[in-house]
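Lab notebook, bench 4. The sequencing result for the construct came back, and we need a structural model before the next group meeting so we can plan mutations. Quick request posted to the team channel:

Model the 3D structure of this chain.
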Amino acid sequence: KTRLLSFAYISTLLNGIARGAVTFLLIFYFEGDRGIDPITAGMLLCPFAVAMMAVSPISGILCDKYGARALSSIGLLISAAGLLGFMRINTTSSTAYLVVCMVFTGIGSGMFFSPNTSSIMANVPEG
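Done. Here's the predicted structure in token form:
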């Protein structure tokens, strides 16, 4: 139980660090390389949140049917695919490409967080 709980905490931390780092760096990319104003740069990050909001409730329902471990793993893989896509960004990358990477990362994170949180809550020791 403790090992599963530790893995759930560590995977949440690492996923959050990866998403946070990309979000932080994208703001500098949008404002510095693209010359976009801060408000618009912030709005361009919405695909992360919208994808997470759309997928999280569905993920919770699927978690009850298929289990937390499988869904969390699939979510992390999708999120990793989106994050790896950001490695190809350069000054000529299209906004559509960035949005696709953000959507994949958001979908993966949304698929990951609901089952992972459910797993954490189910394995917390009583008392």
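Residues 2-123 form one domain.
Will bring this to the meeting.
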